[in-house]
Amino acid sequence: MKLLAVCGMGIGTSVLLKMNAEKVLSQLDIEADVDATDIKSALNPDSLAQIVLCTPELSSQLDGIRAEVISVENVFDLDELSQKLTKSLL
To answer: Whole-model pTM above 0.90?
Structure first.
């Protein structure tokens, strides 16, 4: 499974989302490849990502991509991330 953690430049919020997503996926015993990236890369039509994690401010900019977009209100809230990934993956 391929996930992208996305922010505007790919070096701030996306890295936090990536690290927290990896923690949550490990707790859920789900193997996945999670990459941090910028919005432009996430919009690439050749992307193999199945899920894209982002903040609410970016979710509308990701309309139309083939991956499921999960908007995360608080990137530090592992419970929120766990609930949203569980709903999507299990």
So the answer is: yes
